[in-house]
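Training component of the fellowship. As part of building independent skills, the fellow (R.M.) carried out the full modelling exercise for a liganded target. The chosen ligand was adenosine monophosphate. The inputs are recorded below so that the supervisory panel can assess the work.
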Amino acid sequence: MIFLLIGPPGSGKGTQGRILSEKMQLPFFSSGDFLRELAGKEDSFSRQIRLFMDRGELIPDTLMKELFLLEIKKLIVTHGGIIIDGYPRTLDQAKDLESLLLSLNISDSNIYVIELIVEVNELYKRLNERAFCPSCLRVFQFHENICNTCGTQLNRRTDDTMQVIEERLREYELKSRSLHEYFSNRGFLMTIPGEGSIQDIASTIDQAIKEKKVGINKK
Ligand code: AMP
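Fellow's submitted model of the complex:
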């Protein structure tokens, strides 16, 4: 099965994606984590990636398309499915991914798109208060100091500043918002309220997946 998590920055895609990954026993791929690892290197390609990320802009497909698709393909072929956070983020990426899934003979009934909906003020608040574990990459509230899973000192993301947050939310409106209609028309979309406790949201996602499965089997 293929699960795609979409929604604005701060909507909880990474947190819910990791939970789903454990439940489904499928690998978790975060395009943002993948890029942060690349951007941490000291070559000209990495510097180019960093420039876009620091500004809060999406990395152009001319730079990343092949690398993203290669990594996603590798994980699907090895594990039989995947949970993806942060890809696709544009209609072009959605079409590229669908072509890949088609080439891997993955049927539409095995594709689930989970969209998390969170009110914009709450997004600002969450991003402003966010910290992450540099070791296991889990996300926390800023006032926490130590990762409760691996004990590592938490860090702040360099793009979680007010100016860059604004740009990332603008990019979302401009380039990613249309994915809602696209995936809805394709019959893949499950829209989930992303506010409330992490566990409640995870349960709502579970329920929506079960209902979609029942719906598919009835057809
Ligand atoms: P995230 O960790 O998902 O918030 O992503 C952090 C940053 O990585 C974004 O602000 C973009 O600069 C870049 N990024 C992540 N996913 C993509 C993508 N699918 N396409 C282009 N850029 C991306």
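The panel noted the following from the submitted structure. The first helix runs from residue 13 to 24. The mean pLDDT is 95.
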